[in-house]
C-alpha cells in the first residue's frame, strides 16, 4: 500500500515514522553515541549560522516535506536566507539547503540510498553523512550531475562546507 502526505499527517504527533517513497518506515530512537555526535554538530552549526546571520538550524524531530510521498526527519537541517524551503508550523516545506544524516544501524540503508536520491532530486544543496561507528564524515554538493563528494575525512582531519564556508574538525564532532 502506498501512503501519501495526507496519510502521514494523520499520525499522532511524535510518531516514530518517516514517509519514504510512499512507505511508512519506523525509526527507533537513536543510540547515545548518535545523539552525542548530533548535539555537538548542531551546536557548532547553530552558533556559526547565527553568528554569520545566514539562516536557521533545526534538529530532529522535525518534519521535512519534500513531495507527496516523502516526509523525512533528518537529524539536522540548515535553512539559509533566500532558501526555497519554508519553515511553517507543520515543519519544513521544500528542500533545506543542508541536510545532515547521522547513520544508525536501523536507518543507514535509507540514508545512503533512497533518501539520498530524493534529497538530490528535490534540490538539497549539500548532504552531510556522518557515521559515528566508523567516525567518517562526508559532504556532498548538488550539481547538474547530482551529488558529488566535495569533502570527506575518517577518524581525524577536517571537512569543509562550500555552502557555509565552514571547516569542521572531526575530533570536535566525534570526541
What would your notes on this structure say?
The relative contact order is 0.14. The N and C termini lie far apart (43 Å). This protein is of the alpha+beta class and 175 residues long. The protein has five helices and 14 strands. The strands form four sheets. Strands 3-6-9-10-11-12 form a six-stranded mixed beta sheet. The chain has a single domain (29-174), classed as tt1808, chain A, CATH 3.90.1570.
| Alpha-carbon distance between the two ends | 43 Å
CATH T-level fold name: tt1808, chain A
CATH class: Alpha Beta
The count of domains is 1
Total DSSP E strands: 14
Structural class: alpha+beta
The helicity comes to 10-25%
User: Spatial order of the strands in the main sheet?
Assistant: 3-6-9-10-11-12
Question: Strand share of the residues?
Answer: 35-45%
The largest β sheet comes out as: 6 strands, mixed
Question: What order do the helices and strands follow?
Answer: HEEHEEEEEEEHHEEEEEH
- The average pLDDT is 94
As a whole number of angstroms, the C-alpha radius of gyration is 15 Å
In the CATH hierarchy, the architecture is Alpha-Beta Complex
Provide the low-confidence segments as ranges. Answer: none
Quickly count the helices.
5
Shape: globular
Write out the CATH superfamily name: tt1808, chain A
Amino acid at each position: 500500500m502506498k501512503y501519501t502526505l495526507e496519510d502521514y499527517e494523520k499520525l499522532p504527533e511524535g510518531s516514530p515514522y518517516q514517509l519514504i517513497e510512499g512507505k511508512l518506515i519506523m525509526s527507533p530512537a537513536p543510540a547515545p553515541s548518535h545523539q552525542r555526535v548530533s548535539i555537538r554538530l548542531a551546536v557548532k552549526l547553530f552558533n556559526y549560522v547565527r553568528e554569520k546571520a545566514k539562516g536557521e538550524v533545526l534538529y530532529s524531530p522535525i518534519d521535512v516535506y519534500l513531495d507527496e510521498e516523502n516526509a523525512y526527519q533528518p537529524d539536522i537541517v540548515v535553512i539559509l536566507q533566500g532558501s526555497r524551503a519554508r519553515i511553517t508550523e507543520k515543519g519544513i516545506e521544500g528542500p533545506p539547503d543542508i541536510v545532515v544524516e547521522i547513520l544508525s544501524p536501523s536507518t543507514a540503508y535509507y540514508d545512503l540510498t533512497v533518501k539520498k536520491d530524493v534529497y538530490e532530486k528535490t534540490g538539497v544543496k549539500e548532504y552531510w553523512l556522518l557515521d559515528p561507528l566508523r567516525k567518517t564524515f562526508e559532504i556532498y554538493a548538488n550539481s547538474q550531475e547530482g551529488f558529488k563528494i566535495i569533502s570527506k575525512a575518517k577518524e581525524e582531519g577536517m571537512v569543509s562546507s562550500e555552502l557555509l564556508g565552514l571547516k569542521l574538525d572531526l575530533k570536535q564532532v566525534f570526541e
